[in-house]
């Protein structure tokens, strides 16, 4: 079994994500909670052919460039945003049960994120693309919050072997932690401001973090700085294992983040990069001692840098430390199969 695709179950790590709109500006906040501090920010290109690393691989060509946060190598992000303004974040969900193998191609829990960022401009396309493939059986139990530049959001969960989504009227608050969305919403209705009379909780459990984030979103005043407010909410639900906090501004195409090793808020924007396929993917150490606009500090991707990241992250992950050199190489060199796909030329108009 391919280890990253299995991403075998260990203790749940309490990530929290949300999407909110302040005075018409959409922001998406995500805390990533995990054992490993290592990571790279990557700027991936449009018009690239890819395939998943599974026994029945999904194959596609990227329509959109993306900015992703990667720990286990290129094409295996833990989250990110594409140039159309679609954002994807993952969280543990122990009750997950993926569909049994069928005629559809499959992806792992991480390259599924790259697949969505490559192909989906909005949540309708994300739902359709999720239905077109399946997540490989045996993968780590996760669920996802996805939002687009308009602020529309969807949760995607796999329960009892069936994909379950919440969006529109079925998604009263765009927040997700580590319980099923229906259970989280049921708990929230007991909290003051949402139909109940219980105070907003201060604890660290999934349901308590869900309720606190939802309450803080509701209490956000008009005129507040959306990015600063999003970081305040992320700080409120931060845990001892929170490795980085990210705030995405989908309409502006800008990503802000800070890490537990560098608390300075820094940022990067799609407009600072050449997103065409013939140019190299750009990479940057997530924890580099930098501040402000990070675009000038990115360097060209190399297979050697990717292999180093894979080795370091595998060594820092308890259940991956014994992974063979052969398997590590398989993951690290998998992106070498990527290829540029020329876009069709527009036909000349005859008069």
Tell me the number of strands. Answer: 21
| Terminal-residue CA separation | 59 Å
SSE pattern, N- to C-terminal: HEEEEEEEEEHHEEEEEHHHEEEEEEHHE
> What Rg do the Cα atoms give?
19 Å
Strand order of the largest sheet: 13-12-11-8-7-6-3-18-20
Shape: globular
For the biggest sheet, the summary is: 9 strands, antiparallel
Helix content: 10-25%
Walk me through the structure.
This protein has 351 residues and is an alpha+beta fold. It is built from 8 helices and 21 strands. It has helices at residues 3-6, 111-119, 123-132, 181-188, 206-218, 226-236, 303-316, 325-333, and strands at residues 16-22, 25-33, 40-44, 48-51, 59-61, 66-70, 77-82, 87-92, 106-107, 134-135, 142-147, 153-159, 162-167, 175-176, 242-249, 254-259, 266-269, 282-285, 292-293, 299-300, 339-340. The strands form 4 sheets. It has a 9-stranded antiparallel sheet, with helices on one face. A hairpin with a 7-residue loop joins strand 4 (48-51) and strand 5.
Which characteristics define this entry?
351 residues; 8 helices; 7-stranded mixed beta sheet; alpha+beta; single chain
């Amino acid at each position: 079994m391919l280890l990253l695709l299995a991403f075998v179950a260990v203790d749940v790590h309490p990530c929290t994500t949300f999407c909110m709109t302040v005075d018409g500006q959409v922001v998406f906040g995500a805390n990533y909670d995990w054992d490993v501090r290592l990571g790279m920010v990557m700027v991936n290109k449009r018009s690239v052919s890819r395939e998943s690393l599974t026994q029945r691989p999904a194959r596609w060509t990227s329509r959109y460039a993306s900015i992703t946060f990667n720990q286990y190598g290129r094409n295996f992000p833990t989250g990110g945003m594409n140039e159309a303004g679609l954002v994807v974040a993952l969280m543990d969900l122990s009750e997950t049960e993926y569909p049994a193998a069928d005629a559809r191609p499959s992806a792992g829990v991480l390259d599924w994120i790259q697949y969505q960022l490559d192909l989906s401009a909005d949540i309708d396309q994300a739902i359709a693309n999720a239905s077109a493939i399946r997540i490989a059986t045996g993968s780590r139990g996760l669920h996802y919050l996805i939002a687009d530049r308009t602020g529309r959001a969807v949760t995607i969960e796999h329960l009892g072997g069936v994909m379950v989504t919440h969006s529109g009227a079925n998604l009263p608050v765009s927040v997700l932690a580590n319980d099923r969305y229906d259970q989280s919403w049921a708990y929230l209705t007991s909290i003051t401001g949402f139909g109940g009379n219980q105070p907003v909780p201060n604890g660290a459990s999934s349901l308590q973090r869900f309720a606190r984030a939802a309450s803080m979103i509701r209490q956000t005043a008009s005129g507040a700085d959306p990015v600063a407010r999003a970081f305040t909410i992320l700080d409120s639900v931060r845990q001892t294992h929170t490795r980085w906090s990210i705030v995405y501004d989908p309409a502006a195409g800008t990503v802000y983040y800070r890490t537990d090793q560098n608390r300075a808020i820094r940022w990067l924007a799609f407009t600072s990069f050449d997103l065409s396929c013939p140019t190299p993917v750009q990479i940057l150490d997530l924890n580099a001692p930098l501040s402000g606009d990070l675009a000038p500090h990115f360097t060209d991707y190399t297979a050697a840098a990717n292999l180093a990241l894979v080795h370091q992250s595998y060594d820092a992950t308890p259940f991956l430390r014994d992974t063979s050199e052969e398997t590590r190489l398989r993951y690290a060199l998998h992106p070498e199969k990527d290829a540029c796909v020329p876009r069709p030329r527009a036909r000349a108009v005859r008069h």
